[in-house]
Amino acid sequence: MASKLTSTSPVALGGITIPWAALRTLLPDERWAVWACGWLNTPVAITLGINYQANNATTYVLGQQTFPAQGWGKVQLGPYAAKGPLAPPTVPEENIMSINLFGSLASAGTASVHRWTIWLRLTPRST
Predict the structure, then answer these.
(1) What's the half-sphere exposure (Cβ side, CA atoms, 13 Å) at 6?
(2) How many CB atoms lie within 10 A of CB 33?
(3) Are 36 and 118 spatial neighbours (Cβ–Cβ below 8 Å)?
(4) Residue 43 phi/psi, 5° resolution?
(5) Of 3, 72, 85, 105, which one has the greatest count of Cβ atoms within 10 A?
(6) Rounded distance, CA 39 to CA 8, Å?
């Protein structure tokens, strides 16, 4: 699936929801990071990012990156801390996590994103 970007204002491009309350008995609550990767067709520079969306629809940016105009190419975002003590302190603890991919153009024009995958994984301890 492709999403076309035509605005310098951020727009939602997709996302995942995770029933954290159901998984909680199997997984620890700490050190979770979110990643994303996919294809871009960028005749103009674009900014892509990942945010957490709370139950009240408030969004919290976990991380973002600007990609230069390059035509077709594969890129990745992350890892960005999404849950646990490394996550931004404003991200709420909720029964269902909602992670979104968003994007915007850096200047007038059009660009597109294709076949993006978002995943959550446990971050290894450094010690």
Answers:
(1) 3
(2) 21
(3) yes
(4) -65, -20
(5) 105
(6) 19
When comparing pLDDT for 123 and 96, which is higher? Answer: 96
Report d(CA 19, CA 2) in Å as an integer: 26
**Cα separation of the two ends of the chain:** 40
Which residue from 34, 38, 4, 30 is spatially nearest to 17, judged by alpha carbons?
Answer: 34
Residue with tokens 């727009």: 11
Q: What is the mean pLDDT of residues 104-113?
A: 88
The reported pLDDT for the residue numbered 126 is 61
Domains and CATH numbers, the chain: 2-122 (2.60.120)
What pLDDT is stored for residue 75 in this prediction? Answer: 94
Is the pLDDT at 1 greater than 60? The verdict is no
Rounded Cα distance between 10 and 64, Å, is 11
Q: What is the model's pLDDT at position 125?
A: 66
Checking if the pLDDT of 115 tops 70, the result is yes
Give the pLDDT confidence score for residue 87 in this predicted structure.
87
Round to whole Å and give the CA distance between 108 and 122: 38
3-state secondary structure of 91: coil
